[in-house]
Design brief:
Elements lengths: L1 E5 L2 E6 L2 E6 L2 E5 L4 H22 L7 H24 L8 H5 L1 H14 L5 H11 L3 H17 L1
Antiparallel strand pairs: 1-2, 2-3, 3-4
Helix pairs in contact: 1-2, 2-4, 4-5, 5-6
């Protein structure tokens, strides 16, 4: 078992698998090599950061917004990498993945960890990160909550 620390993340080779731990996140990439997983993460998290930072006004963000973009990009990147690995597909995060309802749920969770949940500030920030108006965000959120409750 070899652990490699990368800023706020730890990549650990556990036999034929790689475990990535970042705060509350814990992903086990089965039948994977550390070099492949860390390289895929490094490539795709940059795309995620750029995607979400652009929605908040560009590359230069105040520290709190930069930390939020980092949290969203980290979790969304790891989520989609896991999806591709579990389904035995090449890790290739697309623009559609950044817009997917699961990514939107990640945005909501990350925002609500930083600001008061269900507040106007949380709605406005989530809407911006999703590229929606607040009204469209609120409609999406209601529909998503109904969908989750029906499952």
């Amino acid at each position: 078992m070899t652990a490699v620390k990368d800023s706020a993340m730890t990549f650990t080779q556990e036999g034929p698998n790689v475990r990535v731990i970042a705060g509350r996140l814990n992903f086990l990439f089965t039948q994977s090599e550390h070099a492949v997983i860390s390289a895929a993460y490094a490539r795709h998290v940059v795309q995620g950061r750029a995607h979400f930072a652009q929605r908040l006004g560009g590359d230069v963000l105040e520290p709190a917004l930069a930390a939020l973009v980092e949290a969203v990009a980290r979790e969304a990147t790891l989520h989609w990498m896991y999806f591709y690995v579990v389904n035995r597909l090449a890790i290739e995060i697309t623009a559609a993945d950044w817009e997917h309802p699961q990514t939107r749920r990640i945005i909501c969770r990350s925002v609500e960890e930083k600001v008061k949940p269900c507040s106007a500030e949380a709605a406005a920030l989530s809407a911006r990160l999703m590229g929606l108006s607040v009204a469209d965000y609120q409609r999406w959120r209601r529909a998503d909550e109904e969908y989750v409750e029906r499952r």
